[in-house]
Amino acid sequence: MHILHIETGRHLFGGALQVRYLMQGLAEQTIRNTLVCPAGSEITACASAYGKTYPTDIKGDLDPRIPLQLIRIIREVKPDLVHVHSRRGADMWGGLAALLTRTKAVLTRRVDNREVPWVARAKYSLYVKVIAISEAIRRVLVSETIAPTRIVCIPSGIDPNPYQKPCDPSWFQETFDLTPGNRTVGVIAQLIPRKGHRFLLEAAPAILARFPETRFLFFGQGPQKPDLERLCHEKGITHAVRFAGFRKDMDRIFPCLDLVVHPATMEGLGVSLLEAASSGRPIVASRAGGIPEVVHHGLNGILVKPGTAGELTEAVSRLLGDPGLGAQLGAAGRRLVAEKFSVAAMVKGNIAVYNEILQGETAPTLER
Q1: Can you name the residues that pair with 5 across neighbouring β-strands?
Q2: Which spans in 33-130 are helix H?
Q3: In terms of Cα–Cα distance, which of 93, 92, 87, 46 is closest to 69?
Q4: Span 63-72, pLDDT tens digits
Q5: Residue 182: which of 221, 157, 218, 211 has the closest Cα?
Q6: I need a surface site. Which of 97, 239, 264, 268 has the fewest CB within 10 A?
Q7: Rounded mean pLDDT of 87-94?
């Protein structure tokens, strides 16, 4: 079996990391991989151990060179199946290139935002199957009139081992300008509106009034950073907030955090939540998208209504004030990830989809 993967992410987290895990798992099963990815992306180097890579110059959804490049590569490598993993410049063009080369294709959808139904029908008709990484995304697809029989739910997987190392307090405090008495609340997400950072900043003054030693660490980058920094200044909490940027050593950071907060208003599943749970961190998160499939209220974290600073204040304060409860929730999170979100299960699920498609399905045609 030969699978051509298309992944347009430039950094090795989220969907791109899942593709790397998948390619490794497929290679271990003697399944041949080829990867199309942006030139200079982080996945290019690490994926080369599991298959041939085709770094391309991808500029975005409207780049007219994308389908031409994809058609050329598909014709050159002659895969049994095309697997499109991303949206930017890939989900429409990848399916169309597969159709024009008479190659069967499958698409993984990782986000829960809604699309115009007729656009969704046209796009997803290019694929034999659509893989949703959460039941929440499956429900969105069905609401867009995609036939339930064409949707398969395969949750993202994670290797928990890197996140279970002990914390190095001295390194952690020096790196993020902390003192031994600080309690740390981490947010791991792109600095974009739908991740909800502003709701935690609105809750921060009340949290600091109860626990003045708290420090909020925001890991990630994005266009909303100036607005969030301005909000910190307006609320007088600049001293308690660290914008730490994108880090490649989160496996070293997670074990040092007291808790993780994810106040997103939209989320497909949340790989950072799986990483937090693997490291034994208690979680406070919004009851949005696929988040409740990772954070089970009262088991490994606390869920709050999206966009509510008041509920965030109470949930975060509860965990800061009760370390024993945090330890209990953290231990349950480790068990949950091991049972339901393993890389092996994710790889097995994808292989099952490939076999089903290649053994009986025909390539799709454009719906009118």
Answers
A1: 35, 83
A2: 42-47, 65-77, 91-100, 117-124
A3: 93
A4: 677 888 999 9
A5: 211
A6: 239
A7: 79
Residue listed under structure tokens 């953290």: 330
pLDDT digits (tens, 9 = 90+) for 199-257: 999 999 999 999 999 999 999 999 999 999 999 999 999 999 999 999 989 999 999 99
List strand residue ranges (DSSP E) for the chain, in order: 2-6, 32-38, 52-56, 81-84, 104-109, 129-132, 151-153, 183-188, 214-219, 241-245, 259-262, 283-286, 301-304
Residue 137 CB contacts under 8 Å (≥ 6 apart), including other chains:
109, 110, 111, 112, 153, 268, 269, 289, 290
- Burial 348-362, CB ≥16 within 10 A → b, else e: ebbbebbeebeeeee
Q: What is the C-alpha to C-alpha distance for residues 68 and 63, in angstroms, rounded to an integer?
A: 10
Q: How many residues comprise the chain?
A: 368
Closest among 192, 195, 184 to 306, alpha carbons compared: 195
d(CA 268, CA 132): 9
How many other β-carbons are positioned within 10 Å of the β-carbon of residue 239? 10
- Looking at every residue in the chain, the average pLDDT score rounds to 92
| Secondary structure string (H, E, C) spanning 263-313 | CCCCCCCCHHHHHHHHCCCCEEEECCCCHHHCCCECCCEEEECCCCHHHHH
Query: Which residue has 């914008």 as its token pair?
Result: 243
Amino acid at the residue 47: A
Lowest mean pLDDT among 64-68, 86-90, 274-278, 294-298: 86-90
With 70 as the cut, is the pLDDT of residue 131 above it?
yes
CA-to-CA distance for 349 and 131, rounded, in angstroms?
10
What does the alpha-carbon distance between residue 298 and residue 306 come to, in Å, rounded to a whole number?
17
Mean pLDDT of 116-135: 90
**Bridge partners, 55 (sequence order):** 37
For the chain, the straight-line distance linking the first and the last C-alpha, in angstroms and rounded, comes to 32
**Per residue in 103-119, pLDDT tens?**
999 999 988 888 888 88
